[in-house]
Structure formats: structure tokens, C-alpha cells
């Protein structure tokens, strides 16, 4: 969460014991944010709660052993934290969600390629109304997003209903929450298939009744 990133060969994780193996050595008070599988030529995107995101080629990070501490992926101030790790293998849009329920989709190509360790560019225009950036996800744009609040309230909506807009915009309201609440997390899932033209339970009962009347 302090913006450190590292790259390790998958071979290093063969024959993992029941007690596990170290994947990274972290500084005190730091936490592991996320892990992604890459192919050697993937674009890496790291976003922070300050509304910025950096995009760089994974080859900017040399391959290291499991116990290595890593290198700087995004430059952060003391009170800032990384909140999202995304790759170009996961989708063509970046979905941004703020703590007050605002969200948007922005084409990945709108983020200029930089070197790792940069401060990044704006991924969402944060205001008092939107709150801080909670997380980002790489998406194709036709999935569903499930948004969970700190009070345990969850909604599910189609990403087709979320506008595609530029980086320096605040997005639209995805979930309505009161002033004392905030978005805790999101999950991107396969779009829910709604079967059309199927009879409802009431229609089934009516059809059964008509069949019985015909028999009598």
C-alpha cells in the first residue's frame, strides 16, 4: 500500500509448503495490496487514494527473488496509500470508484505511459462531493459491479450504465449513501443473465387453473 512493486518468476513458487512461502519482504506498517499474473510484456497500472494513477511497462521492474523488498512503483506522500493494481491483460477501461459512491470508466489508452516511480496522472477528479478514490479495476465494460459500503449494504449494477468519460472528470453516482457512510470495496463479476419471456409464478398458477377448468 506504500506503492512498492516487485516482479518474481512463477517458478519461484513451485512446491509451496503448507506453511507457505514468502512472496515479498515488507516494511513495518506496510500491507500487501494485490497480486497479478503477467506475461512479461504487460502494462501495470497503480492507483492511489489521491486520485492519481501511474502506468508503466512491467519490464521497468527487474525480476527479483521471493524475499526481495521490491522497488518504487508509484510516488506517494506520507499520508497517501495505493488502492488499486490493474493490468492491460484484464480490460480496456479503468473503472474508478470513490468513497461517496461516484464512479466512471476511462479508456486505458488515455493514461500516458510513464516510468515506474512517477506520481501519476489524474484518474478521477476528486471533490468533497466524491470523496477519496477507493479503488480501480481494469474492465471490458460489459460486466456487473458489486459495490459494498462499510455498513454492509451492497448493490449490483451493470457497467453498461456507467459512462465512458475522460480522466479529469468525477463520474456519476453509482450508489446512494448518506453523509456518514462510505464505500468499502467493490467486486467486478460476469454480467447477470436475465432470462426473458419466462412465465412468472403467478402466470404458472393461472395456466394450471385454466388447464383444470378445461378438464372439468
Keywords summarizing the entry:
4-stranded antiparallel sheet, 7% helix, 216 residues, globular, mainly beta
Write the layout of secondary structure elements.
Elements lengths: L3 E2 L37 E6 L3 E6 L13 E2 L9 E6 L5 E6 L3 E6 L13 E2 L10 E7 L4 E6 L4 E5 L13 E2 L9 E7 L11 H15 L1
Antiparallel strand pairs: 1-4, 2-3, 2-5, 3-8, 6-7, 6-9, 7-12, 10-11, 10-13
Structural overview:
By secondary structure, the protein is mostly beta strands. Helices cover 7% and strands 29% of the residues. The strands form 4 sheets. It has a 4-stranded antiparallel sheet with strand order 5-2-3-8, with no helix packed on it. Strands 9-6-7-12 form a 4-stranded antiparallel sheet, with no helix packed on it. A hairpin with a 3-residue loop joins β6 and β7. The longest helix has 15 residues, at 201-215. The model has no long low-confidence stretch (mean pLDDT 90).
What is the 3D form? globular
Q: What is the helical fraction, as a range of percent?
A: under 10%
**Order of SSEs, N→C?**
EEEEEEEEEEEEEH
Oligomeric state, counting identical vs distinct chains: single chain
The radius of gyration over CA amounts to 22 Å
Task: Record the strand order, biggest sheet.
Answer: 5-2-3-8
* Largest sheet data: 4 strands, antiparallel
Low-confidence stretches: none
Cα(first) to Cα(last) distance is 72 Å
Q: What is the number of E strands? A: 13
Number of DSSP helices?
Answer: 1
